């Protein structure tokens, strides 16, 4: 990744769990907030002076100033300063237009052959429709994917989740890329892309979302990650896609917004026992359990699980809701069926149907992303729900999300996580969410939007 002429130029990639040092040197580390963000409010991932950033344009200006003050000239983001992304030096420059930063490259100039791997390795295309391939990918990720800074938790995406995440409408099998050892045929690295449509104000842009970049722990000195990124980028270019958005847990040039992770305890005793959270000052375990206790049944009349025949109504509800945000996905009925129709232990969706008119008035959803608990004798898995898309028109959002917490507790989740995007901030404190360690920075590649967004102006949640 240190080579500024690599094929990232003009291609927008969404990175979840892109290793931090890969950005600079091709070695592996973590950029994302930890899988569990253990230890709420332990002041990790904050500004260099220890203070959390403020919202909006002042956030980015503050980040720019802190970054420039805290690192030497020799360690600045040399790679990103060569790329068509927002630059720290441009923060506050109102003369720069919104939209693409650079025009697309002619398709005839896109490299037609795969990039060269070191001699011991070979490319494969991973067919995620087969049980055998899913098992291989699952094993690689389960043992080698993102861990928190203290090596207490590691993401544990299920095989069902991977198939859901990687096979949306119009997906390209060629964007699911693996690296094998030639002799043993062992899968040692993986990276994926999926197509998406995201709206920036009034413009809907085709993008590539890149995810699941993973290199086996024993091979992280082999510089496989940079060539993998270039290869998936090449394959994205071949489909004439040049813009997208990406996320990272580190500050790069230049976030369009910075979001905060919040956590709501559902099983507080387990969370404290495994080190995810701590017992509060002057709090006993019994008082803590009582504090987070939820009703046994949902409270909203007409609250029920989403079904197949609800797709048109949910699509209308969601599209209307997302239209108020500056950046949001452009979902159609096929997207809603794929991403939001309930799938056991993958995604849960509930709605409110008026008992009188039978109108669908409200909607909430969450996806399942457990983490392996490392080195604990009593527990092996942390079952986490992540808030996805929620729409409130008749039922107060606070009440709707309280019902979501109730059903998550009924389904034995340990914690319910949410970002402060969209209108989420309105319910977080009232429903006893606590701010975690993790910050998530959102970026656009080869697309400028200004001024910087408040988290409440962002209608996009990435897996």
UniProtKB/TrEMBL annotation:
The EC number(s) this enzyme carries: 2.3.1.97
Principal EC category: transferase
Gene3D superfamilies on file: 3.40.630.170
Molecular function GO terms recorded: glycylpeptide N-tetradecanoyltransferase activity
Pfam families in the cross-refs: NMT, NMT_C
Biased composition (Low complexity): 37-53
Domain Glycylpeptide N-tetradecanoyltransferase C-terminal, chain residue ranges per copy: 273-456
Keywords (A to Z) from UniProt: Acyltransferase, Signal, Transferase
Keyword Mitochondrion: no
Keyword Acyltransferase applies: yes
Signal peptide start and end residues: 1-19
Sequence segments annotated as region (Disordered): 26-58
Catalytic activity as recorded in UniProt: N-terminal glycyl-[protein] + tetradecanoyl-CoA = N-tetradecanoylglycyl-[protein] + CoA + H(+)
Domain called Glycylpeptide N-tetradecanoyltransferase N-terminal: residue spans: 100-259
GO CC aspect terms: cytoplasm
Its biological purpose: Adds a myristoyl group to the N-terminal glycine residue of certain cellular proteins.
The family this protein is said to belong to: Belongs to the NMT family.
Protein name in UniProt: Glycylpeptide N-tetradecanoyltransferase
Source organism (scientific name): Dillenia turbinata
């Amino acid at each position: 990744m240190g080579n500024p002429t690599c094929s990232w130029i003009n291609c927008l990639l969404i990175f979840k769990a892109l290793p931090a040092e890969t950005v600079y040197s091709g070695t592996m580390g973590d950029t994302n907030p930890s899988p569990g963000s253990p230890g709420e409010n332990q002041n990790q991932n904050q500004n260099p002076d220890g203070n959390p950033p403020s919202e909006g344009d002042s956030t980015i200006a503050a980040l720019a100033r802190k970054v420039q003050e805290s690192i030497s000239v020799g360690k600045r983001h040399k790679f990103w300063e060569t790329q068509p992304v927002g630059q720290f030096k441009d923060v506050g420059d109102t003369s720069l237009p919104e939209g693409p930063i650079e025009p697309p490259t002619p398709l005839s100039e896109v490299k037609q052959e795969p990039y060269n791997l070191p001699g011991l390795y070979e490319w494969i295309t991973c067919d995620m429709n087969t049980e055998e391939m899913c098992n291989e990918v699952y094993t690689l990720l389960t043992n080698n994917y993102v861990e928190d800074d203290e090596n207490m938790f590691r993401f544990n995406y299920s095989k069902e989740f991977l198939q859901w995440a990687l096979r949306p409408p119009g997906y390209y099998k060629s964007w699911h890329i693996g690296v094998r050892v030639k002799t043993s045929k062992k899968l040692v690295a993986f990276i994926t892309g999926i197509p998406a449509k995201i709206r920036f104000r009034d413009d809907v842009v085709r993008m590539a979302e890149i995810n699941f970049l993973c290199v086996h722990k024993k091979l992280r000195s082999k510089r496989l990650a940079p060539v993998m990124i270039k290869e998936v980028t090449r394959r994205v270019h071949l489909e004439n896609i040049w813009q997208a958005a990406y996320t990272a847990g580190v500050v790069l040039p230049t976030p369009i917004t910075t979001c905060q992770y919040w956590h709501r305890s559902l099983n507080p005793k387990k969370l404290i026992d495994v080190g995810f959270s701590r017992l509060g000052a002057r709090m006993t375990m019994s008082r803590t359990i009582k504090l987070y206790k939820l009703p046994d049944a949902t409270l909203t009349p007409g609250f029920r699980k989403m079904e197949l025949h609800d797709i048109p109504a949910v699509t209308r509800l969601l599209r209307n809701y997302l239209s108020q945000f500056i950046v949001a996905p452009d979902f159609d009925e096929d997207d809603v069926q794929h991403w939001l129709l309930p799938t056991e232990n993958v995604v849960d969706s509930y709605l409110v149907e008026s008992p009188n008119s039978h109108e669908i008035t409200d909607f909430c959803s969450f996806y399942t992303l457990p983490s392996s608990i490392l080195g604990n004798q009593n527990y092996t898995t942390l079952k986490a729900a992540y808030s996805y898309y929620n729409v409130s028109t008749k039922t107060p959002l606070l009440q709707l999300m309280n019902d979501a917490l109730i059903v998550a507790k009924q389904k034995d989740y340990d914690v319910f996580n949410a970002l402060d995007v969209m209108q989420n901030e309105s319910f977080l404190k009232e429903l006893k969410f606590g701010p975690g360690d993790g910050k998530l920075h959102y970026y656009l590649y080869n697309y400028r939007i200004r001024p910087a967004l408040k988290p409440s102006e962002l209608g996009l949640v990435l897996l």
